[in-house]
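Researcher: Please predict.
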Amino acid sequence: MRSYQPDLTPPWKKSAPAPEVPAEPDLVVEEAVSGFCGAVIRCEKTAQGPTVTLEDRFGKHRAFPMEPRGFLLEGKVVTLVRPSAGGPVRPARTASGSVAVPGARARVARAGRIYVEGRHDAELVERVWGDDLRIEGVVVEYLEGVDDLPAIVREFSPGPDARLGVLVDHLVPGSKESRIAAQVTGADVLVVGHPYIDVWEAVKPSSVGIPAWPVVPRGQDWKTGVCRALGWPENTGAAWQHILSRVSSYKDLEPQLLGRVEELIDFVTLPA
């Protein structure tokens, strides 16, 4: 007969059982080992055991084994389990992929700002990041171009309590935009940009229902040229409203824009 062996592990060294959480679609968790953070897409049975597939905010998918204490939910260790039919509804996500905060009130606007080039840029940022911006108290304004950006920044007078972030279209080496952006410096101002001629191109073609954004010959108005090439009426305002209506979340935008907007939000909300 085997003799009884008492467990001499001190109580403070024993791992407390982690709560079990159903892996409902859209639940946002972090895999404990890799740090990969994403929303639950599906659960599957495999020869090695059950797995869960996560999708991060850039659309990348990764599958992980559903091991005990294998994930973090809002910073706390949990064990994911397969959801049961009719299970509880999990927290929803905002259009930007953040966990929604039901009933959250908008914060009083910060002194800091995010500037974007035009109205279309501002409307797109509002559509995807609007909930996040209101909770953080960040106001987005548009400039109608960046030709006067250095003077605008000087007038704003960025400081530790009033950081300024600027999103520039077509910020590529050798462009007019890059030369203007290079004139803006300072610890409390950040200028970033995406490579697209216009923010229209930052919307994935598949979301708009086209194979690709047309190449418009130099010398032509780009937006009008896009409408012509796609056979749309040459009404750029109506065309933009059609494009915007096809955007429901971050999944409809290109990573080159997603990363830059997230960077600006982080910058202007950093503690002084």
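Model: The radius of gyration is 24 Å.
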